[in-house]
């Protein structure tokens, strides 16, 4: 594994992204991370409500 893969983010490390596409890619990555975080929070809340019942 090259050092550029480790230091670069997943999107820019694996393949080159033209500068004009970077904002869009970053936005998509951010939305993906937010959806993932929301899904994790919902799972935790479901576990907690199941425990309290």
At a glance:
The chain has 53 residues and is mainly alpha-helical. The chain is built from three helices and no strands.
Which tags fit this structure?
53 residues
Overview of the molecule:
The chain is mostly helical and 53 residues long. It has a domain at 16-52. The protein has helices at residues 3-7, 10-14, 22-52. It is rod-shaped, with a radius of gyration of 17 Å.
Q: Characterize the largest beta sheet: strand count, sense, and whether it forms a barrel.
A: none
Helix content range:
over 70%
Written as H for each helix and E for each strand, in order along the chain, the element string is: HHH
Estimate the strand proportion: under 5%
Shape: rod-shaped
Q: Which residue ranges are poorly predicted, with pLDDT under 50 across at least 5 consecutive positions? A: 1-8
Rg for CA atoms? 17 Å
Structural class: mainly alpha
Strands, total number:
0
Topology:
Blueprint: H1 3-7, H2 10-14, H3 22-52
